[in-house]
Each structure stands twice: as structure tokens, then as C-alpha cells.
């Protein structure tokens, strides 16, 4: 378990982390989210005593990281996949870490096999692709078979197979009762991996809740209805005091009503429905809504930017800009 209490970090006039208090519990994958500049990397560095907090404290299973006798046996972390000596082979890099923490050499071969690097174990790391470097970093995190694992952008550079692999790995580790803490900007992947979320903005805690509750509280759900009797359906809904907004393909989007109730209403009036589907916002939409006021770096959308669909009945003005995933692929 990781406990943060009043954690604060100031760099001159810049308050990077602002009295952050939360707990990362074992048995689930906890996602750590925030816009660029929110303080995520600084927080993770302070967890590992790579940065000293201005005030507050972090405890790993009740102790500071610096107090751990064999840290790799307690905490495995991937913060920077490039933090390796390029002249060393993958095997020797891991062997050095193992010997410094009293880990048997046989474990090196095990983790190389786990991450799929056995065939390149004797090659120098400087020749590795971004994805291979990520796999080596993950192997280092797993080396001590730790109870706590921390990953910062673990899917960066991985191909689809690699992304699926690390997702399955993290879920499996959490199912074993370990603490798994992962930071990522890939919302679609986080939605498939994390069960709990800790969200920060400008160094402050914005949310500490389950994935389902986070989406429900920070987005609007609605029901999409389509019928060949469009106008009649609209009249029936209006007569029942239900407001419907125009939807795509001639549909109607209804908020604040249960799909079953709407279907029964249409059936009572003999209206044929071609679609009756509850629509839930994505994690990305909920995240952007919550953090809109905390985004430090705004990109200006060009003339060819796609329109922001937004939420039914809500204008897109003032919402964060759109962007593409620029991350490299594994070669």
C-alpha cells in the first residue's frame, strides 16, 4: 500500500504538487491521471525518494522508500525506460540490479522471458527500439517479485500485442493482491485496465474514486432513439414531458430517462423503434470535463480540426482542444 499525506513540492514560485493526500490500495489497478504539468511525474518521483517533498510524506507499506533494505523486493518501478546504460546488454543491466538487491541470477532469465526479450538478452540496450526499451524497464520493475509496482506510461512505444500483454500483466498482478499504480495519457487503454482512479490537476487532488463512479459523476448519460415515425415519436415524448435533442442519423437523444421506460412508452403508442440504446460517456470525455480548468498547456485547433460532438444539448465552447496520440510504435 502507498500512502500520501499532505504531499507538497515547490520549485521556486512553481507549486508542482499541492497538499496531495490519497492511498493506493492493493488488489486493484489504480490509474493516475492528470493533464500535462499536473504533477504526476513529480509525485511518482517523490514516492521513490528521487525528489524530496517540500512538506508532507509518502509511506510504502508504512515506511519511507529510503528505509527499505532491499527496495526492488518491495517496489518495482518504471519511470523512465531510457534510464539504462546503453553499452550494457539487457541481461547485464538486469544482473547488475539483481546483485545489488540480493536477487538470484536465475530471476534475470525469468523476467527476460516474461517480457519477451530472451532472444535479444545479450544485445546492447542502445540498439533497442522504444518498445524494447519499455519491455526492459518492465522487466526491471518485475525483477524483485515486488508487492508494489509503479508504471509511468508503460504502453509507450508498444505495438497492439504489447499493449494487450502489459494490460493483462497488470491485471494479473493486482489479482494476486499486489498494489499496481499506473500513470498514462492513453484514456482508452486506462479505461480497460484501471478499476480505481486518482486524478490530479495543477498538483491538487481532483478525484479519488472508482472508474464507474468517476465516469458517472463527470459526464452525462443519455438514451438514443431512432424511429421511422420520427415526428410522432417526438410528439409522444413531448406529451410525456420528456425533452429530446436531435441526434445523428435522424435520431433523438434523451437525457434523464431510463431506456426501459422510453421503450415501454413507445410500445404503448405503437411506435416502431429502430434504435433504443443507452449511451455512456467515455473516460476521455469525463476526464476532459473534470480537468478543463486545470489544463496548463492548451493547443489551438486548426481549421481542419474535427468538430467537437460534445454532450447532447451542451455547446462545445470552452471545452479542451482535441489532439492525436503521437506516441511511437514498437519496431
From TrEMBL:
Residue ranges of the ABC transporter domain? 2-227
**Pfam families according to UniProt:** ABC_tran (PF00005)
Question: At the top level of its lineage, which domain of life is listed?
Answer: Bacteria
Stretches that traverse the bilayer:
none
Q: What is this protein called?
A: ATP-binding cassette domain-containing protein
Region Disordered: what ranges?
300-331
Keyword annotations: ATP-binding, Nucleotide-binding, Transport
Which GO molecular function terms does the record list?
ATP binding; ATP hydrolysis activity
Task: Say if the entry is tagged with keyword Nucleotide-binding.
Answer: yes
Family under the similarity heading: Belongs to the ABC transporter superfamily.
Q: Cite the InterPro entries for this sequence.
A: AAA+_ATPase, ABC_transporter-like_ATP-bd, P-loop_NTPase
